[in-house]
Specification:
single chain, mainly beta, 494 residues, Immunoglobulin-like, 26 strands, 8% helix, nine-stranded mixed sheet, 37% strand, 2 domains
């Protein structure tokens, strides 16, 4: 499959925008945009946080199933994982970091946030753009080539995690474009393409190369019931796919024939593909759901021996592509497709990863195999050559009333002993720069008083007003001026 690692040539002003919230209200990591691919025989929800799924968008929307409009349920949730090795905290020791868009064990541990182009809440590029929506068509970055395309940007410069165990950002920005076709042969697939930018220079003063970076998808399928789903590798024309199905094909709520879901690598920045099962119940022989960066990275890259066991537990499956070294300010491209197909003819009473019937030329897999071939061909011919790092035609929003004065992202971030904060004043007046803890209480005031237009620099030593060192965790640095507020979030490691 194609391989692409390119230097950044067309970032323009987008990359120079500070990683900060502009405007009169704050942007918090809880702001999310949900849009569904829904023009073909598949309903797949997409967010601006690197998570995907078949759940309904809201209480009144139809359920997301395959075939669309039936009671068949082939996928509960999934998310993008990107892992790599880099000296994140600048202590000379390489750190193993994996940023996750969806963690089946805890949906609260979603570590991406909306990207840097979306920091002005009045900017429509903040959300997931949909080419089937008239208001998004002029803003969409590029000419659509499919019946429906979605585009969004997210990054991990502030990796949320949880208050008890905050995550550490790897330093990646993802520009995601996804495609749904209506033509026969492609109408049961959704194709995702990710351009992954090394933004390590935005999370600390000196950036670094992300070594052995892997890109993957974790899937939590609930096909009818959660206790009898399974997964296994399958080679189609010599290339691997991850196959997911219900092992006994006896789901009473189904309205159609038994079916299969395949995750299909299309663009691999490296040369290897790793697949494994994850389990949340500690079943012997099955990898448990990773909860820390080292175990996440081991599962993603295949450092631990991949395992495919019998069903009867709550399955999670993981497919990873890599590894590749990604220098600072360079971009790597990855792509993968979701492909669904109903079974053809008779199927076995039970189908396990070890079943001899599980081969690419099995008659009941004929439609799936043809759909995978069609998607591979469409990607190579129509999608693989799209420009890297799609830009917005109008460029970034210019500062206007309400978003003049801003606080820039602190550096280094994360930090241990001290971090530096810059804030820019365009309209003079009284300012107040404060640090708040996760409960919203003031920790310390870093600056207060009248300021003329200029850029100012202050340092925070990680201590409160009383001089006590604050514990590790996430802190909000807020600039308040007559024009409004601007915030960034800082992660203190110890």
């Amino acid at each position: 499959m194609p391989r692409l690692i390119a230097s950044i040539l067309v970032l323009g002003a987008l990359a120079s925008l500070p990683a900060t919230a502009l405007g009169q209200r704050e942007i918090t990591p809880s702001v999310a945009s949900l849009v569904a691919h829904d023009v073909n025989d598949v309903f797949l929800r997409v967010t601006n946080r690197g998570s995907y799924g078949l759940r309904r968008l809201n209480e009144t929307s139809p359920p997301g199933n395959f075939p669309r409009g039936t009671a068949n349920r082939y996928l509960f949730g999934a998310g993008l994982w990107i892992g790599g090795i880099g000296d994140v905290d600048a202590n000379g020791v390489p750190d193993t970091i994996t940023t996750i868009g969806y963690n089946p064990q805890s949906t609260a541990e979603n570590e991406y946030i909306e990207g840097v182009v979306g920091q002005n809440p009045n900017d429509p590029r903040f959300r997931v753009l949909d080419t089937t929506v008239a208001s998004d068509q002029e803003t969409f970055p590029g000419d659509p080539i499919a019946a429906q395309e979605l585009f969004t940007v997210f990054d991990d410069r502030f990796s949320v995690g949880s208050i008890a165990r905050p995550s550490i950002p790897l330093g990646v920005e993802i520009r995601q474009r996804s495609f749904a076709f209506t033509e026969p042969g492609l109408d049961t697939a959704v194709v995702f393409q990710w351009d992954i930018l090394n933004i390590s220079g935005r999370i600390r003063e000196t950036g670094y190369t992300i070594r052995e970076m892997w890109t993957g998808l974790v899937v939590d399928p609930d096909i009818g019931e959660s206790s009898d789903d399974t997964a296994a590798p399958l080679e189609i024309d010599g290339e691997p796919v991850l196959l997911v199905w219900d092992f006994d094909f006896e789901e009473g709520a189904f309205m159609g024939r038994p079916g299969f879901l395949a995750l299909v690598p299309l663009d691999n920045p490296g040369s290897e593909v790793n697949m494994t099962q994850l389990s949340g119940d500690g079943r012997p022989g099955v990898q448990t759901v990773p909860q820390t960066d080292p175990s996440q990275y081991e599962a993603l890259t295949g450092i631990r021996v991949p395992t495919f066991a019998s069903p009867f537990f709550d399955l999670r499956a993981l497919i990873g592509m890599g590894g590749v070294d990604l220098p600072q300010d360079e971009v790597a491209r990855a792509a993968m497709a979701w492909v669904w197909a109903e079974a053809v003819g008779e199927v076995p009473d039970e189908l396990l990863p070890s079943s001899p019937e599980l081969v690419a030329d099995a008659p009941f897999l004929a439609d799936l195999v043809e759909a995978v071939r069609a998607v591979r061909q469409a990607y190579d011919q129509r999608i693989a050559g799209l420009p890297v790092l799609l830009d917005f035609p109008a460029g970034p929003a210019e500062p206007g009333p309400g978003n003049l004065n801003i606080v820039l992202q602190n550096y280094p971030n994360p930090f241990t002993d001290e971090t530096t904060i810059e804030y820019s004043i365009v309209a003079e007046g009284d300012v107040r720069l404060q640090v708040f803890d996760a409960l919203g209480q003031v920790v310390t005031t870093l600056a207060a008083g009248h300021r003329e237009p200029a850029t100012y620099t202050v340092a925070w030593n990680g201590r409160s007003t009383s001089g006590r060192e604050v514990p590790s965790g996430v802190y909000v640095i807020r600039l308040t001026t007559p024009q409004g507020t601007s915030v960034v979030r800082a992660l203190k490691l110890r």
